[in-house]
C-alpha cells in the first residue's frame, strides 16, 4: 500500500495569499476601531461635537453631528491610548475621558442648572470608571496646592488607585502627570516606573517616566556635564545655557502657577544681587504653557536674570533633559559645566554660595 500525506490547504494558502495580497497582513495587524456613542440633552440638532487630544497644542481626532434625537456617534482608529476631550462647538469647556484602541464607550451630557456646563457621564471601560473616580473623589483633595504633604489623603488614594491598575494607560498617565509632580512621591514614582516599564513598556508615558527618573538620578549624584539647551527668552531672542560657561549657574525650573516657586523668588533676587558680581548667574526655565501668565509673573516678581521657556509645559525638552518631575527644581552648575548639586533652595543654597563665592 502506497504512502500518502495529509495536506491542509488552509495552511499552504496562507503564505501564498499574503505574498500575493500583502495588504492582508496590514488588515490583520490593524487595531479595532473605537466607538463613542453619545446622548445629549438640550443640544440643538446639527451641533458639532469634537474629539480632541492635547500634545503641545490641541488636535482634533474626530467629530460628529448631533441629530434631532440628541444622539451622535464617532468611530475611528488610534495608534495608542490617550486622554481625549469632548468639546461642543462654540463652547470652551471640555469633558475628558481615557480612550483606548477598540474601546466601546457611551456618554451622556445633560445641562447643569447651576453652571454654564453639562453634567458629563461616560461608561464602558474600567479606565473610564477610574478616571471619573479620580476627578470626582481624589483630585478635589489635591486641588489648589502645588506641593502636597506626603500624608495628603488624595495622594494616598491616588497611589492605591495606580497600584490596583498597573496594566492600564491611566496608571501611567496619573503617575506621570500627577504623582511625579509631587516632591514627596518620588520614591513611589521610581518604584511604579519600574512596574510600568515591565507591564507597559511601549507607552509614551512609561518611556517619559523612565527617561526622567534616570536623568534625575544622574543629576542627583552630580559630577557629569550639564546638558545644554537653547530656548527663547521672555524678550524673544534665543539663549543657550552653554553661553554661561565659566560662571556658576543656578538653573531654576519653575512656573507662574507654582506657589512655592513664587515664594522663593524674593530670596533668589537677593542672592542674585549679592553674588552676581562674584560670578553667579541664574537661568529660570518656565514650564508654563501660557506665555501671558509667564511674562506677567516675571514682571510681578521683578526677576532681572535670564528667563526662558518654549511654552510646552511639562513636555518641554529642557525639563526632560534634566529629569524635572516637579517644580521648583534647581540645578547648580560649576564654571566647567559640571553639575554640582540639585534642589538647593533657601538656607542650603545660601550656605553653598557663601562657600563657593566668598
Automatic annotation (TrEMBL):
Gene Ontology cellular component terms for the protein in this record: cell envelope
GO molecular function: antioxidant activity; oxidoreductase activity
Pfam families the record matches: AhpC-TSA, DUF4369
Gene3D superfamilies per record: Glutaredoxin
GO BP: any one term: cytochrome complex assembly
Domain Thioredoxin, first and last residues per copy: 220-358
Protein origin, superkingdom: Bacteria
Entry keyword set: Cytochrome c-type biogenesis, Disulfide bond, Redox-active center
Compartments reported by the entry: Cell envelope
PROSITE patterns: THIOREDOXIN_1 (PS00194), THIOREDOXIN_2 (PS51352)
Keyword rRNA-binding appears in the UniProt entry: no
Protein name: AhpC/TSA family protein
Amino acid at each position: 500500500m502506497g504512502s500518502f500525506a495529509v495536506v491542509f490547504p488552509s495552511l499552504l494558502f496562507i503564505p501564498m495569499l499574503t505574498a500575493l495580497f500583502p495588504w492582508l497582513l496590514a488588515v490583520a495587524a490593524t487595531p479595532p476601531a473605537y466607538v463613542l456613542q453619545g446622548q445629549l440633552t438640550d443640544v440643538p440638532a446639527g451641533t458639532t461635537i469634537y474629539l480632541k487630544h492635547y500634545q503641545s497644542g490641541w488636535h482634533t481626532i474626530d467629530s460628529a453631528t448631533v441629530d434631532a434625537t440628541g444622539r451622535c456617534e464617532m468611530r475611528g482608529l488610534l495608534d495608542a491610548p490617550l486622554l481625549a476631550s469632548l468639546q461642543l462647538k462654540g463652547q470652551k469647556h471640555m469633558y475628558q475621558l481615557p480612550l483606548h484602541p477598540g474601546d466601546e464607550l457611551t456618554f451622556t451630557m445633560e445641562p447643569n442648572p447651576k453652571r454654564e456646563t453639562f453634567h458629563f457621564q461616560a461608561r464602558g471601560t474600567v479606565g473610564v470608571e477610574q478616571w471619573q473616580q479620580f476627578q470626582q473623589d481624589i483630585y478635589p483633595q489635591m486641588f489648589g496646592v502645588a506641593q502636597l504633604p506626603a500624608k495628603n489623603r488624595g495622594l494616598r488614594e491616588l497611589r492605591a488607585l495606580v497600584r490596583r491598575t498597573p496594566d492600564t494607560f491611566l496608571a501611567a498617565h496619573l503617575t506621570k502627570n500627577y504623582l511625579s509632580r509631587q516632591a514627596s512621591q518620588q520614591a513611589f514614582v521610581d518604584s511604579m516606573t519600574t512596574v510600568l516599564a515591565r507591564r507597559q513598556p511601549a507607552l509614551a508615558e512609561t518611556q517619559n517616566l523612565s527617561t526622567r527618573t534616570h536623568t534625575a538620578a544622574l543629576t542627583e549624584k552630580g559630577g557629569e556635564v550639564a546638558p545644554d539647551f537653547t530656548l527663547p527668552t521672555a524678550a524673544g531672542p534665543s539663549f543657550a545655557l552653554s553661553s554661561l560657561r565659566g560662571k556658576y549657574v543656578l538653573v531654576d525650573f519653575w512656573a507662574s502657577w507654582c506657589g512655592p516657586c513664587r515664594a522663593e523668588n524674593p530670596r533668589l533676587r537677593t542672592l542674585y544681587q549679592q553674588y552676581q558680581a562674584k560670578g553667579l548667574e541664574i537661568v529660570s526655565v518656565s514650564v508654563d504653557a501660557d506665555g501671558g501668565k509667564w511674562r506677567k509673573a516675571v514682571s510681578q516678581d521683578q526677576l532681572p536674570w535670564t528667563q526662558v521657556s518654549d511654552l510646552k509645559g511639562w513636555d518641554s525638552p529642557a525639563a526632560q533633559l534634566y529629569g524635572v518631575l516637579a517644580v521648583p527644581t534647581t540645578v547648580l552648575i560649576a564654571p566647567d559645566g559640571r553639575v554640582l548639586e540639585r534642589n538647593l533652595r533657601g538656607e542650603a543654597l545660601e550656605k553653598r554660595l557663601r562657600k563657593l563665592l566668598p
